[in-house]
Amino acid sequence: MQVQIIPGSVQFAVVGLPDKAVAESRERVRGALIASGLALPAKRITVNLAPADLPKEGSHYDLPIALGVMAAIGAIPADALGGYCVLGELALDGTITAVNGALPAAIAAGARGLGLICPAPCGPEAAWAGGDLDVLAPRSLIQLANHFKGSQVMARPEPAIAAAHGPLPDLRDIKGQEGAKRALEIAASGGHNLLMNGPPGAGKSMLAARLPSILPPLTPRELLDISMIQSVAGELRGGALSTRRPFREPHHSASMAALVGGGLGARPGEASLAHGGVLFLDELPEFTPQVLDSLRQPLETGEIMIARANHRVVYPARFQLVAAMNPCRCGQALEPGYACRRGPNARCMAQYGARISGPLLDRIDLRIEVPAVSAADLILPPPEEGSAEAAARVAAARRLQGERYAARGLSNATTNATCPATLIEEVARPDAEGAALIRSAAESLRLSARGFHRTLRLARTLADLDGEATVRRLHLAEALSYRGRAERPEAA
Length: 492
Ligand SMILES: Nc1ncnc2c1ncn2[C@@H]1O[C@H](COP(=O)(O)OP(=O)(O)OP(=O)(O)O)[C@@H](O)[C@H]1O
Ligand SMILES: [Mg+2]
Fold this sequence. Notes:
Blueprint: E1 2-6, E2 11-15, H1 20-35, E3 44-48, H2 62-72, E4 84-86, E5 89-90, E6 96-97, H3 102-111, E7 115-117, H4 123-126, E8 135-136, H5 141-149, H6 178-190, E9 194-197, H7 204-209, H8 220-232, E10 247-248, H9 256-260, E11 261-262, E12 267-268, H10 270-273, E13 278-281, H11 289-293, H12 296-301, E14 303-307, E15 312-316, E16 320-325, H13 345-353, H14 358-362, E17 366-369, H15 375-378, H16 387-407, H17 421-427, H18 432-444, H19 449-465, H20 473-484
Parallel strand pairs: 2-3, 4-7, 7-8, 9-16, 9-17, 10-13, 13-16
Antiparallel strand pairs: 1-3, 5-6, 11-12, 14-15
Helix pairs in contact: 1-2, 6-16, 17-19, 18-20, 19-20
Adenosine-5'-triphosphate binds near residues 177 and 373.
C-alpha cells in the first residue's frame, strides 16, 4: 500500500479496485483520525492499494490506510510500520474494532518474518500463531501512536482458550440400540461417514449428538487448522480458541452457499467449519438435492474451491459426514405390519430415498437401520458402558492408524477413511478367505471401484478395533453388511 500527499485541491482518495466497504473506509479513517486529534493536511491525499487489479473486499483495510496516512503526516515514525502486517476496522471515535481472519493473518505474517498489528479483541487469537511473533493489539489509534513514540509500550497479548460449555452429552443416555452404538464407535474409530435410517423417535439425532464425546482430542496442528477457518468465518468468540472438535448441524433448508461457502467475502460454509469434526445432516432427504450433491467434491478431496472474479479461494473441508433419515415421508415404512398412507411401503420409501443421489450414497461407508426402541429397552437401567469406555477403544484404534500412516510418511492421512486408494489395497490386504469373500461380494453387490476401496477401509478399521494386523473374512463380512443394508429399495 502506498500513501501520497501532494499539494492540490483538498481530497482524500482510495484507488486499487476497492469494493463498497473499502471505499467507505475513507470516511471512517477521516473520522477516526480527527477524533484522535490528527487533522488531515489540506492537500491531496491518495492511497493506492496494490496490486491494482485485485479487487479488495471488506473493512479490514481501515487500519492500514489510517496508519499509512499517519506515517505520511509524521504522526508515527515513518519506519515504524515496515516490519508489520496490519489489519483492523476503525470506529469514528478512533477505536479499532475486531475483524475476521486475525489468526491466519498472524500465521502468514510470521511465515514472511513480519509482525502483526491487529485490533485488541483479536489479540488473544493472533497470539496463537507462535511465541516469537511480534503482535501489537492496540485498542485505539492513540494507543498505537503512543507505543511507537515509546511513551506507553504495549504488552504482547496472551493466547486464550474458550471455556468449555459443560460436559458433552454421553452415550450412557441411550438405552438399547447396541447395533447403532457399535456403528457410531466404528465411524469414530476410522473417520467413516455414517447414515442412520429409522422411524421418528428412535434416537438418531440423540446418537449423532454423542459422536463428539467418543472422538479423540484435537492435536495442536488440528486445533490451529480448525481455528483458522473459524477465524475467517468470524466464529471465534472473543478471540479464544475452542479445544472441542467441530460439530455442525445445518438445517435442511440450508442454501448451497451456506453449506459449501461463498457469497460475500467468500465466507467458508458449514462443510469447512466442520473440518476436523462432524457435519451432521439431520433429515437428509429434506435437503435440496443440488445442495447435497455439492458435498460430493469435498467428500472426495477434503477441500472446497470457491471461484471468484479473478482468483480462487480454497478452504479445507475434511469432515466426517453423519446423516439421519426416516425410511419414508410418513416415517414408519420399516415397522413390521405398517401400511404407508401413500400406497405400498416400498414405493413410499423409494420416492423418499430417491432424493439422495447414488453417488452421494456411495460415499457413505456405514449405512444402518435404527429400529424403534422397545418399551422393554426403555425401562432398563442405564447401560454399563458410556462414552468413556467407547472413547478408549476409539483412541486405541486411532493410535494404530496414526502409527501406520506416519510410518509411511503420510502427513494428511491419519485415519483409514482418508487413506489413499492405492495404499489401502496394501495395508488392508485380506487373508485368502477374506479375498474370496470380497471378490464374490463385489460381483453380487455390484460394488463400484470406490465402493470396493471403501469396504477395504472399513474392514481395516474393524481389524484395528480388534487390534489385528491382518484384515480377515469376518472384518470384511461386517464391513459389507454396512454397505448392503439400507441400500436404496428397488423402485416399485
Ligand atoms: N434409545 C433411547 N434411549 C433413551 N431415550 C430415547 C431413545 N431413543 C429416543 N429416546 C427419546 O426420544 C427422543 C427423540 O429422539 P431423537 O430426536 O433422537 O429421535 P430421532 O430418531 O432423531 O427422530 P426423528 O426421526 O423424528 O428426528 C429423545 O429426546 C429421547 O428422549
Ligand atoms: Mg431426529
